[in-house]
Design brief:
407 residues, mainly alpha, 18 helices
Length: 407
Amino acid sequence: MNIHSRNNIGKFIGPSILVMIGSYMLHLSWFKWPDLLIDYGRELYVPWQITQGKVLYTDIHHLYGPLSHYLNAFLFQIFGTGLSTLAYFNIFLVILLASFIYYLLRSDFGDMVATVAGSCFLIVFAFSQYTGIANYNFVCPYSHEVTYGIFLFFAALLTFKKYLAAQKLIQVATIGFLSGLMFLTKVEIFLAGFPAILFGLFLMFRKLKTVRPAKHIFVLLFFFLLPVFAFFIYFSLHIPVSAAFGALIGSYKNIFVGALAGNIFYQNISGIDDPVQNFLLIARYTFGYLLLFGFAGFIAYWVSRAIQKKRLYGAIVFTFAALLLFTFFASYPINWLEIAKPYPVFIFLLLAFLAYRLINEGDDKTATEQQIPFFVLVIFSLLLLFKMLFNVRFYHYGFALAMPAAL
């Protein structure tokens, strides 16, 4: 078998692993995804009512953007009203999202890293069930606005990666349109995703200097406003113009004013209800990670030296280290659901490191095309953690908000 044949076969190893993992997780979780008594009933009821002629924000009270419920109503009209319609469609989105994650990371970090990241998404987040209440997974989420918004961001980021290489207007138009749809989902997703993309565009225009920024920004904003304006026109036909405008921006106002801003539930979600205790937990888990990283680096150093010099003691050191590591984890109690606590610390450090690299790379076009999309993903990951900044975890809202940081 020649090298070319081996390379062709190697391209299928990562995707094949993801297919097997995804299939097993799907089998393991089959129709255990929703909690019909808490939250998820709304995800079925609202789009069904829309198919019966009801209008969101006037006949049905709603706190978030309109996109997901109208999309789900459209799916009900085409494929029939029921839980399975939404579940099957979301499984399709999970497949696409795993593909996006794999493709985005493979081009920059190789097949192994991309496969591990895709596996992380499928095993830990896509079908997750960590609490007594379901709904915190991508198949039957408590709020489709969250999962649809994250899917739209990754689709926009994938388009942005292609835009970096080609700089075509159709690509920036697609980024704008996807961002406009993201605006119509959930506020925390949009306020993390769109600024990250804008900053990526700023870096691109500053580094590459191969396009006219004004023209491309105009196209971006025009197509961003298209889906927003379309919904505005639709609601204006049913309610007063001012009310239609208020409906579209209502969730953004609720961040700063109204009952939601001081809600004890959201204070607990973010960890600001007990900042000292949460800060101490962050410090504790950060120290634990640093110990693990330091130990792994030490072992890697000695094993690499042994391999270079072809000495037997390398295998002995590796075996001893593995036993020591196993003993440490066996004797040290770890709450695995809380290991995401220090994510804001490490994501911030990673962002600083990437910024340093981008500055030192100068105007290297290849390095810019490779690094900026990942830079955008890291910014999105950090901003997405702000809703739970002092209380980051995998479960509950973390299935979506902590997922990009975990990758």
